[in-house]
Design a protein that fits this description.
alpha+beta; Immunoglobulin-like; 7 helices; 12 strands; binds dinuclear copper ion
Amino acid sequence: MQHEVFMVTVVVCTAVFLLTAGLLVYAIWRYRARPGHMEATWPHAHGNPKLEVSLIAVVTLLLLIIAVPNIRVLFAASEPPDLDHALRIEVVGKQWWWKFSYPSLEVETANELHVPVGRTVVATLRTDDVIHSFWVPKLAGKMDLIPNKINHLWFQADEPGIYYGQCAEFCGPSHANMRLRVVAHDEAAFAAWVNAQQTVAQAPADALAQEGERVFQQHCTACHAVAGTPANGKVGPDLTHFGSRQTLAAGLLPNSPSNIARWLQNPQSVKPGSLMPNLGLSEAEITSLTAYLQHLK
Ligand code: CUA
């Protein structure tokens, strides 16, 4: 669809370019300086209404030939195909991370959006603070998240894999640190992921992670939720399945013990301006909290 519009535009523009460039070359050659011609005077022309009107008409016609299919495709492309089987998701932009939820599946996650391949995904997008822009270049164009407005976007991943994205509207000091990834699975793997997300993690069995859970309940519950525990904060990302995520801090760091420790020691050095405070935890507390967070698969 877009390809046809592109080709129409290329053909029209190429024809106009060849015609004007050809006329220019012809004029340069035809009226070049020749011995004996220097004194010749050409008659001065003062406008030619017929020629001007017909040129304007031709240009208008050419622009219409480009505009009509463009506008048609623009509107057609914003209509998602196969709405009946579409997966519906909600995207909420925050300074500086992404909340993704799947209302029909009762799943909520952050910064890593999992989708099935070959299925239309219809997203509603809104923001909790300032304007952000959801952009995963290989899947769809940009769509802004605007305060007090709900926008819509659809896309479909045709190949399994990871599609990288980034906030594309300046939204404060950590705008560049507001990354995301879309993980596309085949149907079976997606179902398995959903199943895992719907399951509440067991209480940790090993002593270190148990100690970490106590640290978590003491310091983290005002902002973060972990299903199946008293933690139900709504300020930061839901951490129920944090251990199953590939990254932390809105896609900035791979999810590893050393990076979790780095984040807990000084969030501001990783993501300047982040609402995540430096909790002033001891080395031992960070180690046990890391063990607990990794246990949350
Ligand atoms: Cu959010 Cu830039």
